[in-house]
Amino acid sequence: KQEVTQIPAALSVPEGENLVLNCSFTDSAIYNLQWFRQDPGKGLTSLLLIQSSQREQTSGRLNASLDKSSGRSTLYIAASQPGDSATYLCAVRQSYNTDKLIFGTGTRLQVFP
Amino acid sequence: DAGVTQSPTHLIKTRGQHVTLRCSPISGHKSVSWYQQVLGQGPQFIFQYYEKEERGRGNFPDRFSARQFPNYSSELNVNALLLGDSALYLCASRSTGDSYEQYFGPGTRLTVT
Predict the structure, then answer these.
(1) Which is nearest to B58 in space by CA: A55, A100, A62, A3?
(2) Which residues of A touch B68 (CB under 8 A)?
(3) Which of B35, B36, B70, B86 shows its CA 20 to 30 Å from the CA of A4?
């Protein structure tokens, strides 16, 4: 059974720092991995999607990497800003035949001025 | 283009009642999934529908049911509500391109008293 873990559970940093959020999964046979952002009480905003054949994806100040063999993904946030404060969730999709995403419990990030 | 929309935004129900939640996917998306997110946890998969057929079901009791209409919109129904059903219910639609990226709506906050 696939389990997804995110470390740390919470993070508080000053503005301008570079951050690394970690996501690990127990079954390396995944189809893709997606990173989301969630503001309090709101829906999920897709940040980056990495296919199982890819090593990394970049969007602006965000970079996500994937090491399938070790069951790990990292989300790198460069030059953090207070507007980056949110909960970040990673989710894995097991196969082509299902849309089911298995989520971690998230990392709650606070960036203070 | 409009994103995934959900209605209502908030809902308060009493134990034992029934509730219907609605979701409209992004135009052109034929696959819709439902998730339940309890406070402090990652979303849990409930159902996936594709072309009006159920393609997957999570570990939820039979009190939960769903359907998809010819225009690809979807309803989630929950009978005999329990206090533990209080959660944010999220709907996601999936693109048909190569990436299979999933997009989430803003959610429906259900409170059962």
Answers:
(1) A100
(2) none
(3) B86
Radius of gyration of chain B (CA): 13
Q: Give residue-wise pLDDT tens across range B69-94.
A: 999 999 999 999 999 999 999 999 99
Contacts of A100 in chain B (CB under 8 A): 33, 45, 48, 56, 58
Supply A79's token pair.
């030059």
B58 contacts A43? CB cut-off 8 A: no
How would you classify the pairing of strands A10-14 and A107-112?
Answer: parallel
Q: Chain B interface, mutation test: which of A23, A101, A105, A108, most B Cβ atoms within 10 Å?
A: A101
pLDDT digits (tens, 9 = 90+) for A64-74: 999 999 999 99
Dihedral angle sign, alpha carbons of residues B28, B33, B39, B40: negative
Q: Which two tokens stand for residue B55?
A: 């393609």
Find out whether B43 and A103 touch, Cβ atoms under 8 Å: yes
- For residue A14, the distance in angstroms to the closest alpha carbon of chain B comes to 24
Give the contacts of A33 (CB within 8 A, at least 6 positions apart): A23, A25, A49, A50, A52, A64, A66, A73, A90, A91, A92, A93
